[in-house]
Protein backbone atom coordinates (compact mmCIF):
# COMPACT_ATOMS: atom_id res chain seq x y z
CA UNK A 1 0.00 0.00 0.00
CA UNK A 2 2.87 2.31 0.90
CA UNK A 3 4.48 1.66 -2.49
CA UNK A 4 1.18 2.37 -4.24
CA UNK A 5 0.77 5.63 -2.33
CA UNK A 6 4.27 6.74 -3.27
CA UNK A 7 3.68 5.85 -6.90
CA UNK A 8 0.38 7.77 -6.91
CA UNK A 9 2.08 10.80 -5.37
CA UNK A 10 4.84 10.72 -7.98
CA UNK A 11 2.26 10.41 -10.77
CA UNK A 12 0.28 13.35 -9.37
CA UNK A 13 3.41 15.45 -9.18
CA UNK A 14 4.26 14.49 -12.75
CA UNK A 15 0.83 15.52 -14.03
CA UNK A 16 0.98 18.80 -12.08
CA UNK A 17 4.44 19.54 -13.45
CA UNK A 18 3.28 18.77 -16.98
CA UNK A 19 0.38 21.20 -16.65
CA UNK A 20 2.63 23.78 -15.00
CA UNK A 21 4.77 23.75 -18.11
CA UNK A 22 1.82 24.66 -20.31
CA UNK A 23 2.29 25.85 -22.96
CA UNK A 24 5.38 24.04 -24.22
CA UNK A 25 4.44 24.09 -27.92
CA UNK A 26 2.49 26.38 -30.29
CA UNK A 27 -1.22 26.93 -29.66
CA UNK A 28 -3.63 26.98 -32.61
CA UNK A 29 -6.32 29.66 -32.49
CA UNK A 30 -9.20 28.82 -34.86
CA UNK A 31 -11.09 31.68 -36.48
CA UNK A 32 -14.29 30.41 -38.07
CA UNK A 33 -14.45 33.22 -40.62
CA UNK A 34 -12.35 34.47 -43.51
CA UNK A 35 -9.15 36.49 -43.23
CA UNK A 36 -9.62 40.25 -43.00
CA UNK A 37 -12.99 40.14 -41.23
CA UNK A 38 -13.74 41.49 -37.79
CA UNK A 39 -13.09 38.24 -35.92
CA UNK A 40 -9.84 37.67 -37.79
CA UNK A 41 -8.63 41.18 -37.01
CA UNK A 42 -9.55 40.76 -33.35
CA UNK A 43 -7.76 37.42 -33.17
CA UNK A 44 -4.56 38.69 -34.74
CA UNK A 45 -4.59 41.81 -32.59
CA UNK A 46 -5.22 39.89 -29.35
CA UNK A 47 -3.03 36.82 -29.89
CA UNK A 48 0.37 38.47 -29.18
CA UNK A 49 -0.95 39.78 -25.86
CA UNK A 50 -2.27 36.38 -24.80
CA UNK A 51 1.18 35.03 -25.66
CA UNK A 52 2.72 37.72 -23.48
CA UNK A 53 0.66 36.82 -20.42
CA UNK A 54 0.86 33.05 -20.89
CA UNK A 55 4.64 33.46 -20.71
CA UNK A 56 7.10 30.65 -21.28
CA UNK A 57 7.69 31.92 -24.83
CA UNK A 58 4.09 31.02 -25.74
CA UNK A 59 3.23 31.04 -29.43
CA UNK A 60 -0.25 31.30 -30.96
CA UNK A 61 -0.94 30.49 -34.61
CA UNK A 62 -4.19 31.93 -36.04
CA UNK A 63 -5.91 29.51 -38.42
CA UNK A 64 -8.84 30.64 -40.59
CA UNK A 65 -11.46 27.93 -41.05
CA UNK A 66 -14.37 29.75 -42.76
CA UNK A 67 -17.56 28.25 -44.11
CA UNK A 68 -21.14 27.25 -43.28
CA UNK A 69 -21.69 30.37 -41.19
CA UNK A 70 -18.91 29.39 -38.79
CA UNK A 71 -19.90 25.73 -38.37
CA UNK A 72 -16.69 24.38 -39.92
CA UNK A 73 -14.46 26.20 -37.48
CA UNK A 74 -16.69 25.67 -34.44
CA UNK A 75 -16.82 21.93 -35.22
CA UNK A 76 -13.05 21.62 -35.53
CA UNK A 77 -12.62 23.47 -32.24
CA UNK A 78 -15.16 21.26 -30.44
CA UNK A 79 -13.63 18.06 -31.80
CA UNK A 80 -10.04 18.97 -30.93
CA UNK A 81 -8.16 17.46 -28.01
CA UNK A 82 -8.93 19.38 -24.79
CA UNK A 83 -5.31 20.06 -23.89
CA UNK A 84 -5.13 23.83 -24.32
CA UNK A 85 -3.29 23.64 -27.62
CA UNK A 86 -6.42 24.36 -29.68
CA UNK A 87 -8.46 27.41 -28.77
CA UNK A 88 -10.60 29.64 -30.92
CA UNK A 89 -12.96 32.55 -31.21
CA UNK A 90 -16.61 31.62 -30.64
CA UNK A 91 -19.17 34.04 -32.05
CA UNK A 92 -22.79 34.67 -31.23
CA UNK A 93 -25.34 34.16 -32.47
CA UNK A 94 -23.94 31.70 -35.06
CA UNK A 95 -22.41 29.49 -32.38
CA UNK A 96 -25.90 29.05 -30.91
CA UNK A 97 -28.21 29.33 -33.91
CA UNK A 98 -26.49 26.73 -36.11
CA UNK A 99 -27.32 23.74 -33.83
CA UNK A 100 -30.86 25.10 -33.44
CA UNK A 101 -31.59 25.40 -37.16
CA UNK A 102 -29.91 22.17 -38.31
CA UNK A 103 -28.13 19.07 -37.10
CA UNK A 104 -24.59 20.15 -36.24
CA UNK A 105 -21.50 18.22 -35.16
CA UNK A 106 -21.01 20.45 -32.13
CA UNK A 107 -23.10 22.05 -29.39
CA UNK A 108 -22.60 24.64 -26.68
CA UNK A 109 -21.94 21.76 -24.29
CA UNK A 110 -19.06 20.51 -26.47
CA UNK A 111 -17.12 23.71 -25.80
CA UNK A 112 -15.45 25.45 -22.85
CA UNK A 113 -16.14 29.23 -22.96
CA UNK A 114 -13.07 30.95 -21.49
CA UNK A 115 -13.75 34.70 -21.77
CA UNK A 116 -15.68 37.14 -23.92
CA UNK A 117 -13.70 39.92 -25.57
CA UNK A 118 -16.03 41.85 -27.92
CA UNK A 119 -19.72 42.79 -28.15
CA UNK A 120 -20.31 44.41 -31.53
CA UNK A 121 -23.66 45.96 -32.65
CA UNK A 122 -24.98 45.38 -36.16
CA UNK A 123 -25.34 48.10 -38.78
CA UNK A 124 -26.71 48.60 -42.31
CA UNK A 125 -24.55 50.37 -44.87
CA UNK A 126 -24.69 51.41 -48.54
CA UNK A 127 -22.37 52.89 -51.14
CA UNK A 128 -22.32 56.71 -51.15
CA UNK A 129 -23.56 56.57 -54.75
CA UNK A 130 -26.78 54.91 -53.58
CA UNK A 131 -29.93 56.98 -53.25
CA UNK A 132 -30.49 55.37 -49.85
CA UNK A 133 -28.98 57.46 -47.04
CA UNK A 134 -31.39 56.79 -44.16
CA UNK A 135 -33.60 54.10 -42.69
CA UNK A 136 -36.67 55.95 -43.93
CA UNK A 137 -35.31 56.00 -47.48
CA UNK A 138 -34.48 52.28 -47.22
CA UNK A 139 -38.02 51.50 -46.10
CA UNK A 140 -39.58 53.63 -48.83
CA UNK A 141 -37.43 52.07 -51.57
CA UNK A 142 -37.97 48.51 -50.29
CA UNK A 143 -41.74 49.00 -50.22
CA UNK A 144 -41.71 50.29 -53.80
CA UNK A 145 -39.33 47.51 -54.92
CA UNK A 146 -40.10 44.43 -52.76
CA UNK A 147 -37.32 41.85 -52.78
CA UNK A 148 -34.97 44.01 -54.86
CA UNK A 149 -32.76 45.28 -52.02
CA UNK A 150 -30.04 42.65 -51.81
CA UNK A 151 -28.05 42.45 -48.60
CA UNK A 152 -24.94 40.47 -47.66
CA UNK A 153 -24.38 38.65 -44.36
CA UNK A 154 -22.10 35.99 -42.90
CA UNK A 155 -24.83 33.35 -43.26
CA UNK A 156 -28.19 32.00 -42.16
CA UNK A 157 -28.83 32.57 -38.48
CA UNK A 158 -25.97 35.05 -38.12
CA UNK A 159 -26.54 38.26 -36.19
CA UNK A 160 -26.36 40.10 -39.53
CA UNK A 161 -29.14 37.90 -40.89
CA UNK A 162 -31.34 37.97 -37.78
CA UNK A 163 -31.04 41.76 -37.59
CA UNK A 164 -32.27 42.11 -41.18
CA UNK A 165 -35.16 39.73 -40.51
CA UNK A 166 -36.10 41.74 -37.43
CA UNK A 167 -35.99 44.91 -39.53
CA UNK A 168 -38.32 43.29 -42.07
CA UNK A 169 -40.73 42.29 -39.30
CA UNK A 170 -40.71 45.75 -37.72
CA UNK A 171 -41.20 47.65 -40.99
CA UNK A 172 -43.13 45.29 -43.25
CA UNK A 173 -40.52 45.41 -46.04
CA UNK A 174 -39.06 42.47 -47.96
CA UNK A 175 -35.32 42.29 -48.66
CA UNK A 176 -33.23 39.65 -50.49
CA UNK A 177 -30.61 37.78 -48.46
CA UNK A 178 -27.20 36.88 -49.97
CA UNK A 179 -24.98 34.89 -47.53
CA UNK A 180 -21.16 34.94 -47.65
CA UNK A 181 -18.37 33.05 -45.79
CA UNK A 182 -17.27 36.07 -43.77
CA UNK A 183 -17.50 39.83 -43.28
CA UNK A 184 -14.51 40.49 -45.51
CA UNK A 185 -16.49 38.88 -48.35
CA UNK A 186 -19.58 40.95 -47.51
CA UNK A 187 -17.46 44.11 -47.56
CA UNK A 188 -15.99 43.19 -50.95
CA UNK A 189 -19.46 42.47 -52.33
CA UNK A 190 -21.00 45.78 -51.24
CA UNK A 191 -17.98 47.86 -52.30
CA UNK A 192 -18.02 46.10 -55.67
CA UNK A 193 -21.74 46.74 -56.15
CA UNK A 194 -22.62 43.02 -56.10
CA UNK A 195 -25.10 43.59 -53.25
CA UNK A 196 -26.88 46.83 -52.44
CA UNK A 197 -26.53 46.70 -48.69
CA UNK A 198 -24.09 45.28 -46.17
CA UNK A 199 -25.49 43.99 -42.90
CA UNK A 200 -22.31 43.95 -40.81
CA UNK A 201 -21.14 44.85 -37.33
CA UNK A 202 -20.52 48.54 -36.75
CA UNK A 203 -16.83 48.01 -35.93
CA UNK A 204 -16.36 46.36 -39.33
CA UNK A 205 -18.13 49.23 -41.08
CA UNK A 206 -16.89 52.38 -39.38
CA UNK A 207 -13.45 52.56 -41.05
CA UNK A 208 -15.09 52.57 -44.51
CA UNK A 209 -17.53 55.21 -43.27
CA UNK A 210 -14.65 57.43 -42.13
CA UNK A 211 -12.91 56.93 -45.48
CA UNK A 212 -16.07 57.78 -47.42
CA UNK A 213 -16.48 54.31 -48.90
CA UNK A 214 -19.78 53.55 -47.20
CA UNK A 215 -22.75 55.36 -45.66
CA UNK A 216 -24.05 53.76 -42.46
CA UNK A 217 -27.75 54.09 -41.61
CA UNK A 218 -27.55 53.27 -37.90
CA UNK A 219 -26.25 50.88 -35.26
CA UNK A 220 -28.34 48.27 -33.43
CA UNK A 221 -27.12 49.02 -29.92
CA UNK A 222 -28.93 50.02 -26.75
CA UNK A 223 -26.58 53.01 -26.63
CA UNK A 224 -24.13 54.41 -29.18
CA UNK A 225 -20.82 52.58 -29.22
CA UNK A 226 -18.06 55.00 -28.24
CA UNK A 227 -16.17 54.05 -31.41
CA UNK A 228 -19.03 55.45 -33.49
CA UNK A 229 -20.52 58.26 -31.38
CA UNK A 230 -21.97 60.08 -34.41
CA UNK A 231 -23.95 57.08 -35.67
CA UNK A 232 -27.49 57.03 -34.22
CA UNK A 233 -28.99 53.80 -32.95
CA UNK A 234 -31.97 52.21 -34.66
CA UNK A 235 -33.89 52.79 -31.42
CA UNK A 236 -33.19 56.54 -31.62
CA UNK A 237 -34.69 56.49 -35.12
CA UNK A 238 -37.88 54.79 -33.96
CA UNK A 239 -37.00 51.13 -34.58
CA UNK A 240 -36.44 49.13 -31.40
CA UNK A 241 -33.90 46.64 -32.75
CA UNK A 242 -30.89 45.56 -30.70
CA UNK A 243 -28.65 42.93 -32.26
CA UNK A 244 -24.94 42.24 -32.38
CA UNK A 245 -22.21 39.67 -32.03
CA UNK A 246 -20.31 38.60 -28.94
CA UNK A 247 -16.84 37.26 -29.76
CA UNK A 248 -14.88 35.43 -27.14
CA UNK A 249 -12.29 32.75 -26.60
CA UNK A 250 -13.33 29.11 -26.26
CA UNK A 251 -11.77 25.66 -26.15
CA UNK A 252 -13.02 22.07 -26.39
CA UNK A 253 -15.11 20.71 -23.52
CA UNK A 254 -13.36 18.95 -20.62
CA UNK A 255 -10.43 21.35 -20.65
CA UNK A 256 -8.38 20.75 -17.44
CA UNK A 257 -9.19 23.34 -14.78
CA UNK A 258 -5.60 24.54 -14.37
CA UNK A 259 -5.16 25.14 -18.11
CA UNK A 260 -8.55 26.89 -18.28
CA UNK A 261 -7.57 29.13 -15.38
CA UNK A 262 -4.24 30.00 -17.00
CA UNK A 263 -5.90 30.85 -20.31
CA UNK A 264 -8.64 32.89 -18.64
CA UNK A 265 -6.09 34.88 -16.64
CA UNK A 266 -4.00 35.50 -19.77
CA UNK A 267 -7.00 36.73 -21.79
CA UNK A 268 -8.09 39.04 -18.97
CA UNK A 269 -4.60 40.51 -18.64
CA UNK A 270 -4.36 40.86 -22.42
CA UNK A 271 -7.67 42.76 -22.70
CA UNK A 272 -6.65 45.05 -19.81
CA UNK A 273 -3.22 45.76 -21.29
CA UNK A 274 -3.05 49.49 -22.25
CA UNK A 275 -1.09 48.71 -25.41
CA UNK A 276 -3.74 46.21 -26.52
CA UNK A 277 -6.52 48.68 -25.73
CA UNK A 278 -4.82 51.28 -27.91
CA UNK A 279 -4.46 48.78 -30.76
CA UNK A 280 -8.08 47.72 -30.27
CA UNK A 281 -9.13 51.36 -30.60
CA UNK A 282 -7.11 51.67 -33.80
CA UNK A 283 -8.74 48.49 -35.14
CA UNK A 284 -12.24 49.64 -34.09
CA UNK A 285 -12.78 46.66 -31.76
CA UNK A 286 -15.84 47.01 -29.52
CA UNK A 287 -14.35 45.57 -26.32
CA UNK A 288 -16.61 44.02 -23.68
CA UNK A 289 -14.81 41.60 -21.37
CA UNK A 290 -16.65 38.84 -19.49
CA UNK A 291 -14.96 36.18 -17.39
CA UNK A 292 -15.73 32.51 -17.97
CA UNK A 293 -18.60 32.34 -15.47
CA UNK A 294 -20.40 35.40 -16.85
CA UNK A 295 -19.66 34.41 -20.45
CA UNK A 296 -21.19 30.96 -19.93
CA UNK A 297 -24.26 32.48 -18.27
CA UNK A 298 -24.75 34.93 -21.14
CA UNK A 299 -24.38 32.19 -23.74
CA UNK A 300 -26.91 29.99 -21.96
CA UNK A 301 -29.37 32.89 -21.72
CA UNK A 302 -28.97 33.74 -25.40
CA UNK A 303 -29.34 30.09 -26.35
CA UNK A 304 -32.69 29.92 -24.55
CA UNK A 305 -33.80 33.10 -26.33
CA UNK A 306 -32.88 31.78 -29.79
CA UNK A 307 -34.51 28.42 -29.11
CA UNK A 308 -37.75 30.19 -28.24
CA UNK A 309 -37.47 32.44 -31.31
CA UNK A 310 -36.95 29.40 -33.53
CA UNK A 311 -40.18 27.84 -32.23
CA UNK A 312 -42.22 30.89 -33.20
CA UNK A 313 -40.31 32.34 -36.19
CA UNK A 314 -37.81 29.88 -37.73
CA UNK A 315 -35.45 32.22 -39.57
CA UNK A 316 -34.05 29.69 -42.04
CA UNK A 317 -37.46 29.50 -43.75
CA UNK A 318 -37.60 33.26 -44.34
Largest sheet: 10 strands, mixed
Number of helices: 11
**End-to-end gap:** 67 Å
Which shape, going by the Cα principal axes?
globular
> At the third CATH level, what is the topology name of the largest domain?
D-Maltodextrin-Binding Protein, domain 2
Assign the CATH architecture of the largest domain. Answer: 3-Layer(aba) Sandwich
β-strand amount: 15-25%
Q: Spans with pLDDT under 50 lasting ≥5 residues?
A: 13-19
Oligomer: single chain
Please write the string of helix (H) and strand (E) elements.
HEHEHEHEHEHEHEHEEHHEH
Structural class designation: alpha/beta
Overall average residue pLDDT:
92
CATH superfamily grouping of the largest domain: Bordetella uptake gene, domain 1
* Rg from alpha-carbon coordinates: 21 Å
Count of beta strands: 10
| Name of the level-1 CATH class of the largest domain | Alpha Beta
Q: What is the domain tally?
A: 2
Determine the fraction of residues in helical runs and give it as a percent range. Answer: 40-55%
Amino acid sequence: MKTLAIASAILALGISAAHAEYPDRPINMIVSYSAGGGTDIAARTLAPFIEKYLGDDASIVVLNKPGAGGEIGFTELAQSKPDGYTIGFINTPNLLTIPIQRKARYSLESLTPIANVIDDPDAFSFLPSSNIKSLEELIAYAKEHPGEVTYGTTGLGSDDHLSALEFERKTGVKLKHIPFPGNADVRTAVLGGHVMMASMNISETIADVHEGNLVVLGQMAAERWDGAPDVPTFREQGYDIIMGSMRGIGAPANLPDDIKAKLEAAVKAAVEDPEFQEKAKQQHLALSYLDSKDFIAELQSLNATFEELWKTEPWVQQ
